[in-house]
Amino acid sequence: MEQLFPFLLALSSAFTTAAQTPTIQYPRLSKTLDSLAYVDQWPMQQMFKQLPDSVGRNLEDVEKRNFASHQPLLEKIVKQYGYPGFKQVGKKSSDNFWLLVQHADAYPEFQRQVLKLMRAEVKRKNANPIFYAYLTDRVAVNANQPEEYGTQVKYEGPGLGKAVPKSLRDPQNVNRRRAAIGMESLESYLDSSTKLHIQMNTLHPSTN
User: Is residue 205 one of the residues assigned to a domain?
Assistant: First the structure.
């Protein structure tokens, strides 16, 4: 679960974006991506709310099955459409595509393929540069390489621990790299990640 907490910070824009523009090229694909992202996020949202599954399933297992079942669909989308950017499916759905790829850790070669496609779309301002940073770090961590932006964290120290990057290249200049693409400072990000981690792992009294 440790890799998933920071996404609740990053994904707020993906799920609060304004309605899709009517001039997108592939509205049906847009709806498909939004539906897949809803399924992807549902178990995490239940865990965040500390709610059990209604039929007693292990929600982390449900997550893993969802990720695996989405993978062949994502491959088909890339083969047919390339990278679905803002012009193709709208900002919300494009960000949702990124989310689905971000969770395809069992398919690192596919993640690297999408990262390369996404880089070109970021240059065209047709994809989210902050989410590109997340995928850059995800690919690096999965290849046992240092992160560029410090988005992938682990928790160290007493109690539930504090968020720290799993690895980091050139730490002295990380905030310069983050600021260049519109990200908050690493210190602020790690503080928010720690607070969310504690919130998700602290039992709350039932409100029933």
Answer: no
Digits of tens for pLDDT over the chain (208 positions)? 444 445 555 554 444 344 444 589 999 999 999 999 988 886 566 655 555 655 556 656 656 776 778 899 999 999 999 999 999 999 999 999 999 999 999 999 999 999 999 999 999 999 999 999 999 999 999 999 999 999 999 999 998 999 999 999 999 999 999 999 999 999 999 999 999 888 877 765 554 4
This prediction has a pTM of 0.82
The total number of structural domains in the chain stands at 1
SS (H, E, C) the chain: CCCCHHHHHHCHHHHHCCCCCCCCCCHHHHHHHHHHHHHHHHHHHHHHCCCCCCCCCCHHHHHHHHHHHHHHHHHHHHHHHCCCCHHHHCHHHHHHHHHHHHCCCCCHHHHHHHHHHHHHHHHCCCCCHHHHHHHHHHHHHHCCCCCCCCCCEEEECCCCCEEEECCCCCHHHHHHHHHHCCCCCHHHHHHHHHHHHHHHCCCCCCCC
How many residues comprise the chain? 208
Residue 114 lies in a domain: yes
Residue 128 lies in a domain: yes
Residue 173 to residue 162: CA distance in whole angstroms: 21
* Domain extent at residue 77: 5-200
Q: Is residue 208 part of a domain?
A: no
